[in-house]
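name: query_chain
kind: protein
chains: 1
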Amino acid sequence: MAAVLELIAGSYEQIAFGYRVKTDEKEWTAKPNFTHHAHTASISAVAASERFVVTGSKDETIQLYDMKKKTEHGALLHHNGSITCLEFYGSSHLLSGGEDGLVCVWSTKKWECLKSIKAHKGTVTSLSVHPSGKLALTVGTDKTLRTWNLINGRSAFIKNIKQNAHIVRWSPDGDKYVVVVDDKVIIYNLETASVTGTITNPKRISSVKFLNNSILAVAGDDEIVRLCDVEKEKWVCEFKAHETRVKAVDSFITEDYCVMVTASNDGFIKMWKLHLKEELESPTLLGEVNTTARLTCLAVWKPSSVQKIAEEPAAEATTSKELAQELSKTKRVRIVAEEVILEDESKPKKKKKRAGK
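structure:
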C-alpha cells in the first residue's frame, strides 16, 4: 500500500507550500496540494505532527494548518520577535523558540500556551525534545547550551559553549546529542555530558538530521549533502543534491530503506532513497519538484507519525549522569498527553493568543 505523504516547505517569499507525494510508482511524483500566504515576512521554521502543520515567521506569528480538515486553524501570538524553531512532541504538544529568548510549550488540544520559559538571554536558535518527552535542549545567542526538565519547566543545567550554536539535535535513542557551531558538529554523550568528538564540514552547516542513531545527514552552504557516522566520528558518504546550497534536510523510514528529503535555494525539493547498511552507497533520486521559490525550511507530514509517551515524570535530576539514569529506566508506556509534558501549577497564559475553534 502506498504511503500517505506530504512535503511542506517554507520560503523567503512568505509562502508555505504543500505537495502530496504519490509513492506507488518507481519514480515518486509530488503534486501541488496547497500554497498558503499567511505570513507577512519570510518563513523561518516549519514542523509537522500527525494532524497539524505549523509555520513560524519573522512576522512573530505561528500559523496553524489542520491537515485532516485541510483548513487554516488560526495563529499563535505569544512571541515578541521572529520565530526561530518549532518542534512537535508526538501529537500532544508543540514547542516554539524565538528571538525574544522564550521557549513556549503549547497544548495541541486547545492551543493554549501551557508554559512560557525565559530560556536564553539572547535568541533561542534551536531546540530539541528528548525522545522520552521529559527534557529538552536549547541553544542560544548567549553562548549557552541549556537542558530543561519539561515536567516542571525548570532548567536542569547550563553549559557554556564559548560560541553561538545554531542547531541542537537529540539522537533517536536519546543517548547522545549534537550541537552545531558554524561548520562544526560537536557530539555529546548524555550520561557524561562530555564531548565525544567533533566533525568539521567544509562549509557552514544549515541543517542536520539523524537518519538512525549513528548516521547524521549534514547540509550546508554548498550543493553537497554529507553523511557522518557520529559513533566512528567520520564522514561515510557524500553526494551532490542540488545546484545551489542546501537549506534543509528531513527523513523518514519506509519499508526497508530510508527516504531523505532535501530543499534548496534553487527551489527544488528532492526525495532520495538510501539503504542504511554497513557500507553506505550514494542515495538514488526518487523524485523531485520545483517550487520556483527560495526555500528556507522543510518538514515531511505523515499521518501515522505518532510517538509514544513515557508515563512517569522525571525525578529532580541535577547532573547529567542522574538524568541519563532516570531516562534509561524501563517504563511502561501509554499514549497519554497532558500528564507528561509540563503540568503547570498556574493557569495557562492567554496573553496575545488567538486560534481557530
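note: Confidence is low (pLDDT under 50) at residues 305-315, 330-353.
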